[in-house]
Design goal:
Blueprint lengths: L12 H19 L6 H4 L5 H26 L13 H27 L5 H6 L8 H32 L4 H14 L6 H21 L3 H12 L11
Helix pairs in contact: 1-3, 1-6, 1-7, 3-6, 4-6, 6-7, 6-8, 6-9, 7-8
Length: 234
C-alpha cells in the first residue's frame, strides 16, 4: 500500500515562518554565551559542560514546540517523516545510547592506558569534549541535537513549506538557511559546511520520505567529534 503520510492539511505559513526565524535566532543568542564565558567560570562552573546542558534543554524545547504545533494543526509525526511509535522511539534512542556508550568506553580505556599530550589536548577544537564528564554530557547533547535538527529543519520545515505549494527543491534550500544559522557561525568554512550538509540531509529526506537515516547519520557526525581525542594519545 502506498505511504499513508501524505499531508492533507496546510501548515499555516505563519507557524512555519515563526519556527524558521525564531529557532535560529534563539540559538544565535545562546551562541553569544561563547563570548562571555566568565559568566560561568566566575561562579565556579565549567563553561562547556554548562553550555552543553543549556543546549540540551533548548533542543528538547524545540521538539516540544514542534509537537504542539503538529497537534494544533491536526498533523502527526508521520506527516513529517518520523515513523516511530513511542515504543519504537525508545528502541531507536536505546540503540544510539548503546553505540555512544560503547564509543565512550573505548575512549576511556585508551586514555587510561596511554599518556596524553597536554599541548595537543589544549589545541583541540572546543567541540571536542576533553573530560569524561564532558563526554557523557556530549553524548546526550548529540542525542537531542540529531533528533531536533532533523525534525525541525528537514521533516517539519520541508513538509510545511510543501503544504503551502512551495516546490520541494526550493523547500530544501529555504529550510537549509535557518539550519545554517542555527549553529552560531564563526567562519566562512562553517557556513559552507552547514550549507552543504543541510542540502544533503534535505535531499536525502526528499528521496527517502523518512527521517530515520537522516537522524542516524546526524548522530554519527556529532559523535565523530569525540574521536578527535585520540589525537592527543602518545
Amino acid at each position: 500500500m502506498e505511504q499513508k503520510t501524505e499531508i492533507k492539511k496546510v501548515m499555516p505559513l505563519s507557524s512555519t515562518i515563526t519556527v524558521l526565524i525564531s529557532f535560529p535566532i534563539t540559538a544565535t543568542l545562546f551562541s553569544l554565551l561563547l563570548l562571555n564565558r566568565t559568566t560561568f567560570t566566575d561562579s565556579g562552573l565549567d563553561f562547556f559542560n554548562t553550555f552543553w546542558l543549556i543546549i540540551i534543554g533548548w533542543y528538547i524545547l524545540q521538539i516540544f514546540i514542534i509537537s504542539k504545533i503538529l497537534k494544533k494543526q491536526g498533523w502527526n509525526w508521520k506527516d513529517i517523516g518520523y515513523p516511530f511509535s513511542t515504543r519504537k522511539t525508545a528502541y531507536f534512542i536505546g540503540g544510539y545510547l548503546l553505540f555512544a556508550i560503547g564509543l565512550l568506553v573505548i575512549i576511556e580505556l585508551a586514555l587510561a592506558n596511554s599518556s596524553v599530550d597536554a599541548a595537543k589536548l589544549e589545541a583541540l577544537s572546543s567541540l571536542t569534549p576533553k573530560t569524561t564528564t564532558a563526554r557523557i554530557i556530549f553524548i546526550f547533547m548529540g542525542l537531542v541535537a540529531g533528533l531536533a535538527e532533523e525534525i525541525v529543519y528537514r521533516g517539519f520545515a520541508i513538509k510545511a513549506l510543501e503544504s503551502n505549494r512551495v516546490n520541494k527543491w526550493l523547500a530544501v534550500l529555504i529550510a537549509t538557511i535557518p539550519f545554517i544559522f542555527q549553529h552560531g557561525l564563526k567562519s566562512i568554512d562553517q557556513f559552507w559546511w552547514f550549507a552543504t550538509t543541510g542540502i544533503a540531509f534535505g535531499l536525502l529526506f526528499l528521496f527517502l520520505k523518512k527521517l530515520t537515516l537522516n537522524i542516524i547519520i546526524h548522530w554519527l557526525v556529532i559523535l565523530s567529534a569525540m574521536t578527535a581525542i585520540f589525537q592527543v594519545i602518545q
